[in-house]
Hints:
There is one protein chain. By secondary structure, the chain is of the alpha+beta class. It is about 20% helix and about 40% strand. The protein has one domain (about 30-125). It is built from two helices and seven strands. Strand 1 (about 35-40) and strand 2 form a beta hairpin. It binds zinc ion (ZN). Zinc ion binds near residues 42 and 45. Zinc ion binds near residues 44, 47, 90, 93 and 95.
Amino acid sequence: MDGNGDVVVPTLLERLGQAIWGKDQQCGCDPSSPALGLVVRCSHCGEIIRTRVEKAYELEAEYENTNGHKLEEHEEPKPSGYTLHKEMLGSQCQQLIYVTMHFDAGRNISRRQIEGGEFVEIGDCV
Ligand SMILES: [Zn+2]
């Protein structure tokens, strides 16, 4: 029975280490896939909700600089910025949180808006 103590101590330290690492990588960042870690608080119940935005897939391109400029058929339009629309739902209540974020051409956040909650943290995972 006493032998169990020797086993438990390293296991706890190991778990602690994993917890620390887990906190550092809470948004599941992967350097090869630039993503955005989003943490919001539900205004209804106060729940903290985390999500991860894949910039490459979830951002919608905006084309504001094409007025007056007619694109040739072979010409690729260059986005002037990007928009993200995200609906987030916690597990404690049924309130949907609507997040709208605007990005410049370099995918940096230029404007952000939230309904039904508030931003707690926005981490750039690049
Ligand atoms: Zn809620």
